[in-house]
């Protein structure tokens, strides 16, 4: 469990971690301008097509199976485009942002906050799609404030002076929306609590359960479903004492400097082929229940546009979080 403690000053670890992670990501992926030198790939090179598509994501929980979760996504993209897909398990969102900025990651699976940070800081990306549990669903989730059952902390007002677990400085539901919630009740998350960055939503919840943090934040399903299904928490171990407004779901964003033909093809793949009914029809799964997609989504990807993340931008205005300017 990665734990970083910070009192009143802005941690510098994010930049260092991003730089180190970027080295790992860029070592493996070819950039959008890297067309290779093999004569057998001369046609693709002439069109500016990458030899390999790099897909990067970070785990919402400590998981060695993240690549397995994206295996079907990789397979469909490879079959449809004819281009091998390399999966990169990034250590944090900052690494994905900087790798896409450098043109080394072609498809990045972001949190809403980190997507906005990337987009608004000039990274040439466009959102393709986000996970949903039905085709007509408005994709979204919430941030929960959690305490051990029986705690005398009953509201955000009680967080003052306490040790509080956040997830990551660029986590939407694990830092940005919690910061806005605390500020609304007069608590400065930079000064009025001892902040701990746990590194993952599961780590944050488990640190609260173990007593390392007096209270903390994580996204809704991590608290109510994922950790309970895994046996890491039992029903009733944690109490939810606050929840945020609905947050637009995490997008997968494409590097817009890729050839337009390829961007259009990837857009069609995410919009029409990476959902359970389509995967069954195409023969990738015998039944919808057998289609293994990331984050346990019950349907698959649905299209999203940049403007659904304006709520995140508004929260950035409220919090004036240093991370919003990363």
TrEMBL record:
<dbReference type="Pfam" id="PF12974">
    <property type="entry name" value="Phosphonate-bd"/>
</dbReference>
<keyword id="KW-0732">Signal</keyword>
<feature type="signal peptide">
    <location>
        <begin position="1"/>
        <end position="32"/>
    </location>
</feature>
<dbReference type="InterPro" id="IPR005770">
    <property type="entry name" value="PhnD"/>
</dbReference>
<comment type="similarity">
    <text>Belongs to the phosphate/phosphite/phosphonate binding protein family.</text>
</comment>
<protein>
    <submittedName>
        <fullName>Phosphate/phosphite/phosphonate ABC transporter substrate-binding protein</fullName>
    </submittedName>
</protein>
């Amino acid at each position: 469990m990665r734990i970083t403690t910070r009192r009143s000053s802005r941690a510098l670890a994010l930049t260092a971690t991003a730089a180190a992670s970027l080295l790992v990501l860029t070592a493996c992926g070819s950039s959008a301008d890297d067309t290779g030198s093999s004569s057998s790939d001369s046609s693709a090179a002439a069109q500016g097509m990458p030899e390999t598509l790099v897909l990067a994501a970070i785990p919402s929980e400590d998981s060695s199976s993240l690549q397995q979760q994206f295996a079907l996504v990789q397979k469909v993209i490879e079959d449809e485009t004819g281009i091998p897909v390399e999966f990169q398990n990034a250590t944090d969102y900052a690494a994905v942002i900087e790798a896409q900025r450098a043109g080394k990651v072609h498809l990045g699976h972001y949190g809403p906050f980190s997507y906005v940070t990337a987009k608004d800081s000039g990274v040439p990306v466009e959102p393709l799609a986000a996970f949903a549990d039905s085709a007509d669903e408005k994709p979204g989730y919430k941030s929960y404030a959690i305490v051990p059952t029986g705690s005398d902390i009953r509201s955000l007002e009680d967080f003052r002076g306490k040790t509080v677990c956040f997830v990551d400085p660029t986590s939407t539901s694990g830092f940005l929306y919690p910061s806005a919630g605390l500020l609304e009740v007069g608590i400065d998350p930079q000064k009025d609590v001892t902040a701990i960055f746990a590194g993952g939503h599961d780590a944050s919840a488990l640190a609260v359960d173990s007593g390392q943090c007096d209270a903390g934040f994580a996204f809704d399903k991590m608290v109510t479903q994922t950790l309970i299904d895994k046996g890491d928490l039992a029903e009733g171990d944690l109490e939810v004492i606050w929840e945020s407004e609905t947050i637009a779901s995490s997008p997968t964003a494409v590097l817009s400097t890729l050839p337009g033909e390829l961007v259009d093809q990837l857009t069609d793949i995410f919009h029409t082929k990476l959902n359970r009914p389509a995967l069954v029809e195409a023969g990738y799964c015998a039944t919808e229940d057998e289609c293994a997609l990331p984050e346990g989504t019950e349907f698959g990807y649905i299209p999203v546009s940049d403007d659904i993340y304006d709520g995140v931008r508004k929260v950035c205005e409220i919090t004036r979080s240093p991370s919003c300017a990363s």
